[in-house]
C-alpha cells in the first residue's frame, strides 16, 4: 500500500500542472527495438546500458552467447560444461554454481525464469536471440529484483539485405560443423502479411557436440513459432510466442589441481559411471500486446510454461515437474514533451513437484530420499517518472517486491515431513538518476537499490535441507557514466561504480559436492569499465570497411565483514571475479564480400576460494573468423583458443572437500559453416 500511495502522489503531482489536452503530445511508439527502462530509440539512458546486435552476438560462435556477451566490459558469460551456462554481470559467480541467478531476464518482453530468479538460459538457442540489451548493476524501479543486472533478449523479423521490393516469404538456413563432434543446423521461415507489418515466423535450431572432455556431450533441439499482428494505430501489435526445447547434456564435473594438471580432458571420477547428466523438456507460451489509447500506451505480457527435469548425479538422482505462469503489465503516459510517467505490475507463479532418489548405477532412480510439493510466487510493483528539460535528464524509479515459498515435504526417509514457509520482501527500492548532454558527450550519475532474495535452489538444496536462515541480499549502487560519439567515427563509454552489498549470498560444496549457500556479510564492489570503437574506414568511400574495438574492466571486490568456521576473511578478494580484463577486436570487410574478424581477450588470474590461496591462472584467448559473402551465401571458418591456452570459462568456487575447482574449457578448435538467405 505504501508503494501504491507513492505512485498516486507522483501521478497527482504530474497531472496537477495546468495544460490543455492539445498541448499534451500523443505517445509515439518506438520501432521494434529492445528498450531499457522503456526508452525509445535514440534516447540516452542515465544507466549503464549496452546493446548488442545479432552480428555482434554470434560473430565468432553461434553455439551460445559466450563470445558475444564477453565482448562487453563488466560481463562474463561462463560455460562450466557444454550448455551449463552462468552469467556474472559485474561480479563473481558466488551465487551461481550452475545456472543463471541474481539476474533478471526478459525474452521478447516476457518475464523469463522462475519466481526466485533461477533462469534456464540454456533453453534458448542462438536462433532464438537477435538482439541483447544489458543493464549492468541493480535495475530496481522498473524491473524485477536482482543486484547483478538485467538481460533483455529479443527475436525480431528476419532482416533482408539488398531487396528491391519487399518479399512475402523469407528463408534463412545454416549448417556448421567443427571440432569435438560439433554439429549445428538452423532454419528460419517468415511469411509477411498483406499489410507488410504483420508476419508469422518459424525457427528451428539443432545443436550437438561430443565434447572436449570425457562425458561432456550435449544435444539440443529448439522450435519457435511467432505470430505478429499489427494494429490499426502505429505501434499497436499483438505477438504470440511458442518455444519448445529438448535439452540433454552430460556433466563431467570439477577436477582437483592434480587432475587438471595431469589431463584436463578427463571427467571427475564417478561422473560417467553414475551417468551425471541433465535432461529437459520445456514448453513456453507467451502473448504480448502493445496498445495506444490517446495519450496512454499499455504493454501487456502473459506467459505459461512447463518443464520436465531428469538429473542423475554422482550421489543422487533428481526428478522434477514444473508448471508456471505470470505476466507483466505496464502503463506509460507522455504527460508533455519533457515529462513521462510509467508504472505497472509483474507477477510469477510456479508449482513444482520434486523427488530426490539414490543413484545406484546411473540407469534410473533408486530408493526415494525425499519428495516435495513447492509453490513459489513473486510480485513486483514499479513506477518511473522521467523529466527531460532541455539538455537534462532526471529519473525517479520506485519498486516494491516480495517472494514467497511454501514447501510441503510429503515424504522423507528420515520421517521429517510437513510444511515450511519462507518470505522475503523489499517494501521500497529506489532509483535516482540524472544526466546531461554536452557538446562533448553525455554525462550521468545514478543511485540504485538492489534487492535479491534467495532462489529456490538456494533455499531448498539438493541434499534435502531447507535454508530457512538465509537472508536476501540488499545493496546500493552509485555510478558515474559518460559516453560520447565523435563524428560517427569514434565512440567511447566509461562507467565507474561503487556497490555496497549487505548479506551477500555465497556458495560452497559439502563432502559429496552438493552446492550449499550462506550469507557472507558485507561486500564492497568497486570497478571501472571502458569501451571504445573506432570506425576507420567504410565501404562507401574506400575499398573496404575497417573498425577497431577495445574494452577494459578493473574490479576491486572485497569482503568487508565475513567470518566462517573461525576464520576471518574480511579484506580478502571475492572469489570468481578477475581484477583485470581486456578485449581487443579488429573487423575488416572488402567490397567483394570477403571479411575477417580477430578478437583477443586477456583475463587476469581469478581467486577461487575465500582464503585467496587457490587461483585460476590468467589466460589469453584468441578467436578469428574468415568468411565470404556472395549471392546470398555466407561461407565461413572460425577458430577459437588459437593459442591453445589452458583455461576455464567457469570454475567451481569454495569446494570444502576434494578441491574440485577446475572445469577446463576446450583447447584449440575450429568450425566451418555455410549460411544461405533467400
Amino acid at each position: 500500500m505504501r508503494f501504491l500511495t507513492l505512485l498516486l502522489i507522483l501521478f497527482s503531482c504530474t497531472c496537477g500542472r495546468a495544460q490543455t489536452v492539445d498541448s499534451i503530445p500523443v505517445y509515439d511508439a518506438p520501432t521494434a527495438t529492445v528498450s531499457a527502462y522503456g526508452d525509445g530509440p535514440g534516447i540516452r539512458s542515465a544507466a549503464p546500458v549496452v546493446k548488442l546486435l545479432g552480428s555482434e552476438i554470434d560473430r565468432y560462435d553461434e553455439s551460445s552467447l559466450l563470445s558475444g556477451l564477453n565482448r562487453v566490459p563488466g560481463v562474463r558469460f561462463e560455460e562450466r560444461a557444454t550448455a551449463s551456462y552462468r552469467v556474472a554481470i559485474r561480479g563473481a559467480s558466488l551465487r551461481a554454481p550452475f545456472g543463471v541467478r541474481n539476474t533478471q531476464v526478459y525474452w521478447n518482453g516476457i518475464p523469463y525464469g522462475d519466481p526466485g530468479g533461477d533462469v534456464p538460459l540454456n533453453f534458448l538457442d542462438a536462433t532464438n536471440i537477435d538482439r541483447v540489451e544489458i543493464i549492468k548493476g541493480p535495475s530496481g524501479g522498473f524491473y524485477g529484483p536482482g543486484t547483478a543486472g538485467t538481460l533483455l533478449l529479443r527475436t525480431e523479423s528476419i532482416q533482408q539485405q539488398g531487396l528491391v521490393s519487399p518479399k512475402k516469404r523469407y528463408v534463412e538456413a545454416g549448417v556448421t560443423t567443427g571440432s569435438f563432434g560439433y554439429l549445428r543446423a538452423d532454419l528460419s521461415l517468415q511469411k509477411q502479411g498483406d499489410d507488410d507489418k504483420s508476419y508469422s515466423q518459424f525457427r528451428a535450431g539443432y545443436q550437438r557436440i561430443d565434447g572436449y572432455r570425457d562425458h561432456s556431450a550435449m544435444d539440443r533441439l529448439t522450435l519457435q513459432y511467432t505470430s505478429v499482428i499489427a494494429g490499426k494505430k502505429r505501434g499497436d501489435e499483438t505477438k504470440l510466442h511458442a518455444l519448445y526445447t529438448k535439452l540433454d547434456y552430460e556433466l563431467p564435473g570439477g577436477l582437483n589441481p592434480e587432475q587438471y594438471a595431469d589431463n584436463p580432458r578427463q571427467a571427475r571420477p564417478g561422473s560417467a559411471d553414475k551417468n551425471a547428466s541433465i535432461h529437459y523438456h520445456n514448453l513456453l507460451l507467451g502473448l504480448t500486446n502493445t496498445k495506444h489509447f490517446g495519450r496512454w500506451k499499455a504493454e501487456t505480457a502473459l506467459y505459461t510454461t512447463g518443464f520436465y527435469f531428469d538429473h542423475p548425479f554422482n550421489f543422487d538422482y533428481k526428478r522434477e515437474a514444473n508448471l508456471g505462469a505470470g505476466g507483466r503489465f505496464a502503463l506509460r503516459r507522455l504527460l508533455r514533451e519533457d515529462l513521462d510517467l510509467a508504472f505497472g505490475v509483474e507477477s510469477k507463479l510456479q508449482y513444482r513437484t520434486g523427488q530426490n532418489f539414490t543413484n545406484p548405477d546411473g540407469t534410473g532412480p533408486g530408493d526415494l530420499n525425499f519428495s516435495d510439493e513447492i509453490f513459489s510466487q513473486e510480485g513486483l510493483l514499479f513506477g518511473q517518472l522521467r523529466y527531460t528539460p532541455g539538455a537534462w535528464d532526471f529519473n525517479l524509479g520506485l519498486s516494491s517486491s516480495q517472494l514467497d515459498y511454501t514447501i510441503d515435504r510429503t515424504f522423507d526417509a528420515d520421517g521429517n515431513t510437513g510444511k515450511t514457509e519462507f518470505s522475503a520482501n523489499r517494501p521500497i527500492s529506489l532509483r535516482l538518476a540524472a544526466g546531461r548532454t554536452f557538446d562533448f558527450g553525455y554525462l550521468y550519475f545514478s543511485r540504485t537499490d538492489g534487492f535479491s532474495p534467495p532462489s529456490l535452489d538456494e533455499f531448498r538444496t539438493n541434499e534435502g535441507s531447507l535454508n530457512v536462515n538465509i537472508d536476501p541480499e540488499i545493496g546500493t549502487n552509485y555510478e558515474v557514466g559518460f559516453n560520447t560519439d565523435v563524428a560517427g567515427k569514434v565512440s567511447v563509454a566509461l562507467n565507474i561504480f561503487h556497490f555496497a552489498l549487505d548479506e551477500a549470498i555465497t556458495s560452497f560444496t559439502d563432502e559429496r559436492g552438493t552446492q550449499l549457500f550462506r550469507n557472507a556479510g558485507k561486500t564492497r564492489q568497486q570497478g571501472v569499465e571502458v569501451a571504445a570503437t573506432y570506425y576507420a574506414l567504410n565501404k562507401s568511400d574506400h575499398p573496404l570497411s575497417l573498425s577497431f574495438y577495445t574494452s577494459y574492466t578493473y574490479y576491486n571486490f572485497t569482503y568487508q565483514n565475513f567470518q566462517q568456521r573461525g576464520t576471518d576473511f574480511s579484506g580478502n578478494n571475492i572469489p570468481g571475479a578477475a581484477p583485470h580484463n581486456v578485449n581487443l577486436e579488429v573487423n575488416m570487410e572488402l567490397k567483394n564480400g570477403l571479411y575477417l574478424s580477430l578478437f583477443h581477450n586477456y583475463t587476469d588470474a581469478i581467486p577461487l576460494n575465500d582464503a585467496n590461496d587457490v587461483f585460476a591462472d590468467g589466460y589469453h584467448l584468441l578467436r578469428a573468423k574468415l568468411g565470404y559473402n556472395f549471392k546470398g551465401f555466407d561461407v565461413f571458418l572460425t577458430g577459437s583458443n588459437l593459442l591453445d591456452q589452458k583455461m576455464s570459462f567457469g570454475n567451481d568456487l569454495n569446494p570444502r572437500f576434494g578441491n574440485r575447482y577446475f572445469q577446463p574449457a576446450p583447447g584449440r578448435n575450429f568450425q566451418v559453416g555455410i549460411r544461405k538467405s533467400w
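The chain has a mean pLDDT of 88. The two ends are 55 Å apart (CA to CA).
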